[in-house]
Design brief:
7 strands, about 30% helix, disordered C terminus, binds magnesium ion, binds guanosine-5'-triphosphate, about 20% strand, alpha/beta
Length: about 200
């Protein structure tokens, strides 16, 4: 599947977000969970989004175009303990303003470290996303760090999100093709549009 992403813009505040009619799929998650790495894996371009061993690296919204009608958005990471309180509050406010106001936001991918599972922040974020009628995509990141024997139990911890996680690794490429598919599917939906329900077998 082709997924040619190009960097388009960085925004430090909501007013700085690009004005376009592209459907957007945003990646959200705790600092250091692997958002930028996953974006690079999706795009098959190593240096596209800046990754770092230092948590709290991405502090603005970064927009990447994919083809003619889609954009991926790398959101700043939350929950970094060493970030000052004022900075953390600013980042949380920016993320929420983006989630609540962005007109063409079609889907939000919540990235969660596979070893950690969802915590309060992720459950709250999922609830916000559902209230807005945006498609929720749950991603379990850094799956390569789990032994085969640990995988099933790790995925079970995602049950409270009520959405089956896609297990991914930016390192090995596991799950990336499936995630590309979900992103393209999510982007086709208009925000607020209901998911088509399967017709019950007679
Ligand atoms: N083993 C492994 N390491 C990963 C994976 N994805 C990311 N990492 C590592 O995790 C660290 C953080 O990755 P980033 O992609 O920068 O994380 P981020 O979520 O963008 O972080 P912030 O921008 O600080 O919010 C880096 O050292 C990456 O190399 C993965 O799938 N497997
Ligand atoms: Mg980042």
């Amino acid at each position: 599947m082709r997924f040619d992403a190009e960097f388009a813009a960085s925004a430090l505040d909501y007013a700085g977000c690009p004005r376009w009619s592209r459907a957007e799929v945003a990646l959200a998650g705790r600092s250091n969970v692997g958002k930028s790495s996953l974006l690079n894996a999706l795009a098959q371009a190593k240096g596209l989004a800046r990754t770092s061993k230092t948590p709290g690296r991405t502090r603005c919204l970064n927009f990447f175009t994919v083809g003619a009608a889609l954009a991926l958005v790398d959101l700043p990471g939350y929950g970094y303990a060493r970030m000052g309180r004022a900075e953390a509050a600013k980042i949380a406010a920016l993320m929420h303003e983006y989630l609540e106001r962005r007109p063409h936001l079609a889907a939000l991918a919540i990235l969660i470290d596979a070893r950690r599972g969802p915590e309060t922040e992720e459950l709250e974020l999922a609830a916000t996303v559902r209230e807005r009628g945006i498609e929720l995509i749950v991603v379990a990141t850094k799956f390569d760090k789990l032994k085969n024997s640990e995988r099933a139990a790790a995925l079970k911890r995602f049950a409270p999100l009520e959405s089956a996680p896609i297990a991914c690794s930016a390192l090995t490429g596991e799950g990336i093709e499936r995630l590309r598919g979900r992103i393209l599917e999510g982007a086709r939906r208009k925000p607020g549009e209901r998911r088509a329900r399967p017709i019950a077998a007679a």
